[in-house]
Design brief:
Oligomer: single chain
Structural class: alpha+beta
Distance between the termini: 23 Å
Order of helices and strands: HEEEHHEEHE
Helix content: 25-40%
Largest sheet: 3 strands, mixed
Bound molecules: zinc ion
Mean pLDDT: 86
Shape: globular
Low-confidence stretches: none
Number of domains: 1
């Protein structure tokens, strides 16, 4: 028995609507079964929201519903214009949610222990550069130049084009 992601997503939207957070609608929720180092991601391409991804691990029964809602809310805040990075406006909105909705605790990177899971082996990346040709991934702690302008860089392994993603919610 796993959690109903759509139901939790609807609850988060209702909660954020109640305090007028201007998130943008997300058509696609994707569940990732192979992630080992992150909980969620918000994929934005050319300024448009493509999808929100959630780790399948979070949907297991041993994880509190609120932990999943924290991740969904974290990712929805990234859909607000100007909120791609974990700072400035994103942080302000996260603070607002945490203050107004007492059950929420949105953080930049949620710790595995908060979900009752094994602690991480290393500091998680906040961003990742992915090679669209060979699938190589390059973890980045910071919003580096390559993260900001992946089109100007190439994969170190195969020379293929890179895309930047926000991994957020890494354990
Ligand atoms: Zn490559
Ligand atoms: Zn994030």
């Amino acid at each position: 028995m796993v959690k109903d992601l759509e139901m939790l997503y609807a609850e988060v939207r209702r909660d954020l609507d109640a305090i007028a957070i201007p998130y943008r609608p997300v058509d696609r929720l994707t569940i990732h079964t192979r992630w080992t180092r992150r909980w969620g991601e918000c994929r934005i391409r050319n300024g448009e929201v493509e999808a929100i991804g959630i780790s399948a691990r979070l949907l297991q029964d041993d994880v509190p519903d609120q932990a999943v809602k924290n991740v969904i809310a974290h990712e929805l805040l990234h859909t607000v214009r100007g909120c791609y990075a974990h700072r400035g406006k994103w942080q302000q909105l996260a603070d607002m949610v945490n203050r107004a909705l007492l059950s929420y605790r949105i953080t930049c990177t949620a710790k595995a222990e908060e979900y009752g899971l094994a602690p991480p082996e290393q500091k998680p990346p906040c961003y990742v550069l992915l090679c669209t040709a060979c699938g190589m991934r390059y973890d980045r702690q910071r919003r580096s130049k390559a993260v900001q302008n992946p089109g100007r860089y190439r994969c170190g392994r195969c020379g293929g084009p890179l895309v930047a993603r926000h991994t957020g919610d890494v354990k």
